[in-house]
Specification:
Strands 1-2-3-4-5-6-7-8 form an eight-stranded antiparallel beta barrel. By secondary structure, the chain is mostly beta strands. Strand 4 and strand 5 form a beta hairpin. The protein has one helix and eight strands; from the N terminus they run H-E-E-E-E-E-E-E-E. About 4% of the residues have low confidence.
């Protein structure tokens, strides 16, 4: 058996015995990258479907075993080019922040777990459109509520890879209608054990 195969087997066996630090007093730091397909139903953009890439770093603290609360930040940047359309190019830039709460269902001794994560985010969205060299910007504020769930696989006591599926609803301030989004994400969390 060559060295690479031996190393791979040792890592796999170590990974199968790994447990996460999801107990009271520990911290977690990480984030989620996600791809979403959104169908807008607001007054200004009814029936439009857009694909969006988002990144959301987070930091959380375990209040009790398996239950963490913390803060999520978010940023996304979407650019649409409408081909032969007279509208030219449009851009959407989002900045979001807000609290989250997360619960892990299985015992901390398991090498995998199942989680559910709920969050509220206040967002500032800047939209820009151009028919030439100048970009014309408009700003909106929005409230977003999200729920995500899925399995997490631990590589060791500190690092977990998450596969999340969820739904979010977004409501613009001073606008009618809501936007519903189904999202699929891949997250990475680092669990930091407190000093004893």
């Amino acid at each position: 058996m060559n060295r690479i195969t031996m190393l791979a087997l040792c890592m796999l066996m170590y990974g199968l015995t790994a447990t996460a630090q999801i107990t009271k007093g520990n911290w977690m730091v990480g984030g989620v990258a996600s791809y979403a397909s959104t169908k807008y139903n607001g007054e200004a953009s009814s029936g439009v479907t857009v694909s969006i890439f988002k990144a959301q770093p987070n930091i959380g603290y375990f209040i009790i075993d398996k239950l963490a609360a913390g803060l999520k930040l978010g940023y996304s940047n979407v650019t649409n080019k409408f081909g032969e359309s007279p509208y030219g190019v449009s851009k959407i830039v989002d900045y979001n922040f807000g609290p989250f709460i997360r619960y892990y269902f299985l015992s901390p001794e398991k090498p995998f777990n199942i989680l559910i994560d709920g969050s509220y985010q206040y967002g500032i969205r800047r939209t820009g459109s151009s028919t030439g060299a100048d970009m014309h910007w408009t700003q909106y504020n929005a409230n977003t509520f999200s729920v995500n769930a899925g399995p997490v696989l631990y590589f060791n006591t500190s690092v977990g890879l998450e596969f999340l599926v969820g739904y979010s609803t977004e409501k613009y301030v001073k606008d009618q209608g809501r936007n519903g989004t189904v999202q699929v994400g891949l997250g990475l969390q680092v669990h930091l054990e407190r000093d004893k």
